[in-house]
Specification:
By secondary structure, this protein is of the alpha/beta class. Strands 5-2-6-7-1-8 form a six-stranded parallel sheet, sandwiched between helices. It starts with a strand and ends with a helix. The model has no long low-confidence stretch (mean pLDDT 88).
C-alpha cells in the first residue's frame, strides 16, 4: 500500500544522504525511482541532490506553483517507478503537498519527502506544516547540538558568525550559514 512519508529534522542531520541511500537500495534491486528537488536550491548543482558526505544523484526539480500530481503522473506514463523521493520538502506549498497525497492515493505510488521542520526563527515551513498534517508516516532524522543533546532548532549566522533573528524565511545555505542546536541553546543564541 502506497503512503506519503515525511522524514524531517534540522540542518545537517543527513536527510539527503538517507534519501540517496533509500533510492540506491531500490535501484540495487532493479526498481526505478523518481527523484525531485527544489528548483532554486542548486548547492549540489543544477537539478541534483547532494549530500555533505559527497554522494549525489541527478534529479528532476519542482518550482513554485508547479502541479506535482501531473509531474508524477507524466513520469509514471514513461515506465515503471517504484517510489518518488522529494528532497527539500519544506519548500513545497500546501497545494503541492495535497498533490503528492493525491498521487499516493490515486496513482498508488509511495512518496517519500525529506525536509526541514522549522526555520531559523522556530516557525514551521509551509510545506512542512502541510506534511505534518497529511503524511501517513513521519520519521524524525536526528542530529545533535554541540552540547550532545538532540538538535531540534537551527540558527542562521552572517559571514562573521553572528546569529541573525530577522530576514526572509528562505535563504539557501549550508554549514557556513546554519547551525543546528537544541532548544535551550537556540533560545540562548537568539535571546528567546
Amino acid at each position: 500500500m502506497a503512503k506519503l512519508y515525511f522524514h524531517y529534522s534540522t540542518m545537517n542531520a543527513g536527510k539527503s544522504t538517507l534519501l540517496l541511500q533509500a533510492s540506491y537500495n531500490y535501484h540495487e534491486r532493479g526498481m526505478q525511482t523518481y527523484l525531485i528537488t527544489a528548483q532554486f536550491d542548486n548547492r549540489a548543482g543544477k537539478a541534483r541532490i547532494g549530500s555533505r558526505i559527497g554522494i549525489g544523484a541527478d534529479a528532476d526539480t519542482f518550482a513554485k506553483g508547479e502541479d506535482l500530481f501531473q509531474k508524477i503522473e507524466a513520469r509514471l506514463a514513461e515506465g515503471p517507478c517504484t517510489c518518488v523521493f522529494i528532497d527539500e520538502a519544506q519548500f513545497l506549498s500546501r497545494e503541492q503537498v495535497w498533490q503528492l497525497a493525491r498521487a499516493v492515493d490515486d496513482l498508488r505510488v509511495p512518496v517519500m519527502c525529506y525536509g526541514l521542520r522549522v526555520d531559523f526563527q522556530g516557525n514551521l515551513f509551509p510545506g512542512s506544516a502541510a506534511l505534518l498534517a497529511l503524511a501517513d508516516e513521519m520519521r524524525e532524522v536526528r542530529t545533535i547540538c554541540h552540547c550532545g543533546k538532540k538538535a531540534t532548532m537551527v540558527v542562521r549566522q552572517d559571514d562573521q558568525g553572528r546569529v541573525l533573528t530577522d530576514g526572509d524565511q528562505v535563504q539557501i545555505g549550508g554549514n557556513e550559514t546554519y547551525v543546528s542546536l537544541c532548544r535551550r541553546h537556540w533560545r540562548e543564541a537568539t535571546g528567546g
